[in-house]
Amino acid sequence: MALHTDWEYCGWMESVTVCDVVTVAPSGLMRVISGRKELLRIYRHYAEAIIVATEREHGMLSDLHMAVDHESIITSMPLKSRVALSQAALRALDKKQQPWGILGMQPRRDLKELDQEVSNGKCDIMLNEEGRVLRSVSLCVVRLMREDGRILAEIGEMHDGKLSMGCKLPGTKVRSQELPHDAIRRLIKRQFGHLEAQELNRLEETLIGQATRVVNFEEKVSANYGINSRYTRNEFQMQIGPEFFAEDGSKALPRSSSKSSGGRLGLGRKLGQSGDSLNIDQYEAFAKIAPEEPDRVSIMAWLDPEAMPFLASGSGEAKLRDWVYSFRHELNDLVEGTANSAGAVARQESLSLFGRRMSRKPSCKGSPKTDGVMV
């Protein structure tokens, strides 16, 4: 990265074990790259992405600090160059699987779906420093915290009449040519789309300006593709006032009728007790339909920070399932009401269009059957 940007020199570093040091001469590197058209294009896109990333992610590169990680730089590149970078790793993966498939020792996986995911910009495939093929996915989540310390969480979803449960922070995948801050801005717009443009811009700048960003990496085998996957999770922690959730089109869901106790937090597990003491009815839950997806309902709740790990774990799965399932009637009513409203609007627009067409038709004068009106 030092080849493309200003680099802040911090001092000497002393190695305590034997290591290899590689030096790259810029002039020699350019001679190699300039003779290969596609490689030169990728090189330029990567260099441009680094420069843009360091400017927009608010940080100076140095011996000790990088404002943006390698995975985020790759994601922000044009899709054509991203796909070209992934193709070499895909070929290596396909070649690696062939001998095992021939010997019948391991079923050869179909890489078409993985190749399609790469072509859509949903992931990247790369070779790590050990030569292993790695699938890379970049995610952004937002930890919105109120004044009382509670955190906004997604606890479930209804799509096409089917309920699914899962306690997590609101999030999104980083799309092609996006940096983490771009993805989080898009997420804020989606969450607070009910605000006027000026108010939304003010909220966006306020939240981004005071946000604390934490980057975590998790590596595990993908259940769908059977290859090692590295998930880069950018978590933006933000404080927000309750006024931004007023009149956002969401529907408040009824409190649970649970009589379980446990104090305000209701978290007996903090003392090593069972999670059954978690008092669900203290939490505010609401349902929200995005205008662009009227058949999808997000179920949100304001939770104590200590409650989220339990509800996201296997131990809290049953309690979360019962909680979300208790809203099924309200969710069905909300979806039906939205569909009826959309149908009424569509019918009104259709009638208006029909009326405009009628007004442009010439009248049929002298016809005794229609009284001068064409039907």
Protein described:
There is one protein chain. By secondary structure, this protein is of the alpha+beta class. 38% of the residues lie in helices and 20% in strands. It is built from ten helices and ten strands. The strands form two sheets. Strands 1, 2, 5, 6 and 7 form a five-stranded mixed β-sheet that branches. Strands 4-3-10-9-8 form a five-stranded antiparallel β-sheet. The longest helix has 33 residues, at 328-360.
List keywords for this structure.
about 375 residues, alpha+beta, five-stranded mixed beta sheet, about 20% strand, disordered C terminus
Which helices and strands, and how do they pair?
Layout: H1 26-34, H2 37-56, H3 70-75, H4 79-103, H5 112-119, E1 124-127, E2 133-145, E3 151-159, E4 162-168, E5 171-173, H6 180-191, H7 197-210, E6 212-221, E7 228-239, E8 251-253, E9 285-289, E10 296-303, H8 307-312, H9 317-325, H10 328-360
Parallel strand pairs: 2-7
Antiparallel strand pairs: 1-2, 2-5, 3-4, 3-10, 6-7, 8-9, 9-10
Mean pLDDT rating: 78
Percent helix: 25-40%
Strands, count = 10
What is the string of SSEs from the N terminus onward?
HHHHHEEEEEHHEEEEEHHH
What characteristic shape results from the CA principal axes? globular
User: Helical region count?
Assistant: 10
The radius of gyration computed from the alpha-carbon positions, rounded to a whole number of angstroms, is 27 Å
Structural class based on helices, strands and sheet pairing: alpha+beta
Low-confidence segments, given as residue ranges, are 100-108, 258-274, 361-375
Cα separation of the termini: 73 Å
Q: Strand count, sense and closure of the main sheet? A: 5 strands, mixed
- In what range is the share of β-strand residues? 15-25%
